[in-house]
Design a protein that fits this description.
The protein is built from 11 helices and 12 strands. With about 375 residues, it is of the alpha+beta class. About 5% of the residues have low confidence. The protein binds N-oxalylglycine and nickel (II) ion (NI). The site of nickel (II) ion (NI) has 3 residues, from loops.
């Protein structure tokens, strides 16, 4: 059964009866239909905290910029390595250039993503996500009745280990979707592995300290995100604030439409679009392995009243069966071991999400 349909029925049930006419107008419509009709978003999408947007653009945050790092210099330039370390120890996020992927190739990835999303609903639903699964196409997974819904569609696919791919969920249309994702996955994985070695060198520890913890069966998920236009960007988010559960995330942004924001020093900072760059975000598991020296940043996505936005996120995670731990050489008296050894952090993270807990806090030493 398709989550999308299930969602519509649930929405109808919940909204029947006690809503005003203008609110009830949208009952039963999909996000895309509401987007096209310019409807007022139903209450389930409205962010309740009165702090919505209030941390944006105060004058003290104007000077905070997301660093740009040239990956091709990391092997030769001590200065670039220092920049990498300070970026990851402060914001946990940077824009990577010099990564070796051509602009035309990145455009190709964006193009197949856009073509898939432009297909008729029935065609996309052939790849629909089953209710209790993470792979496939649909809206965000509902884990609690009180959850505020994201204004977005996603296509999530496991790309590594390659023998665990569920090809039945890989679109056959556009015809070059599969081979393009395959190539993007290999190139991204190579870049991530290089970055993981550089991250270790930047901390003066053995260069495989992080990489080897991902294991030979490291897992990579690809997620294509589509954020339709929304009539109330002041009240509705594309994605709620979260940290990634991954080890490391690489994000290909839309060439024109901004939306991603990272929380730095209590301010939401825009991550600008730079067509040839790839955004690198650390996930919780690298915060654990670096013994808390590197940060897994809180981030969110805004909606846009005028334009559809898309992005492609690649999440690289240690093999769920392997135990990860803070690198020994990063533990000392001034910085005692901060996190326990953990296995299968994805499951811990998901349970915490359901219970409204911060996953990283539950694996801290002493909790
Ligand atoms: C994510 C995410 C950001 C974006 O998928 O985890 O944070 O810009 N996406 O789509
Ligand atoms: Ni994210």
């Amino acid at each position: 059964m398709l989550e999308v349909r299930e969602r519509e029925r649930e929405r109808e049930r919940e909204m029947a009866g006690n809503l005003s006419v203008s609110e009830a107008k949208s009952v039963g419509k999909s996000i895309q239909e509401m987007s096209m009709d310019g409807d007022e978003p139903p209450l389930q999408f409205v962010v309740k905290e009165h702090t919505f947007g209030s941390k944006q653009h105060d004058s003290s945050s104007e000077s905070i910029l997301i660093p740009i790092i040239d990956v091709s210099l990391l092997l030769s330039s001590e200065q670039e390595l220092l920049k990498l370390r300070s970026a990851l120890a402060s914001s946990g996020c940077f824009q990577a250039v010099g990564h070796g992927m051509s602009s035309s190739f990145l455009d190709k990835v964006r193009e197949v993503a856009k073509q898939f999303f432009a297909l008729p609903v029935e065609e996309k639903e052939k790849y629909g996500r089953a209710v209790n699964e993470s792979e496939g196409y649909g809206n965000d997974r509902i884990v609690s009745g009180k959850q505020v819904l994201d204004w977005c569609y996603r296509l999530t696919l496991k790309v590594f280990p390659a023998n665990n791919r569920r090809l039945a969920l890989w679109p056959e249309n556009p015809v070059d979707f599969r081979e393009t994702l395959e190539e993007f996955s290999f190139k991204t994985k190579a870049m991530m592995d290089q970055l993981l070695r550089s991250m270790a060198r930047s901390l003066k520890v053995e260069e495989n300290s992080f990489l080897k913890q991902f294991g030979d069966s490291a897992m990579m998920m690809a997620r294509f995100n589509f954020y339709p236009r929304c009539s109330r960007p002041d009240m509705v988010l594309g994605v709620k604030p979260h940290t990634d559960r991954s080890g490391i995330t690489v994000l290909l942004q839309d060439t024109q439409v901004e939306g991603l924001q990272v929380l730095i020093d209590d301010a939401w900072i825009n991550v600008p679009t730079i067509p040839e760059s790839l955004v690198v975000n650390l996930g919780d598991q690298m915060q654990i392995m670096s013994n808390g020296i590197f940060k897994s940043p809180m981030h969110r996505v805004l909606t846009n009243e005028k334009k559809l936005r898309m992005s492609v996120a690649m999440f690289n995670e240690p093999d769920p069966d392997a135990e990860i731990e803070p690198v020994e050489a990063l533990i000392d008296e001034t910085r005692p071991k901060m996190y326990r050894n953990v296995k299968n952090y994805g499951v811990i993270n998901y349970q915490c999400y359901q219970e409204g807990k911060v996953a990283l806090e539950t694996v801290r030493v002493g909790t």
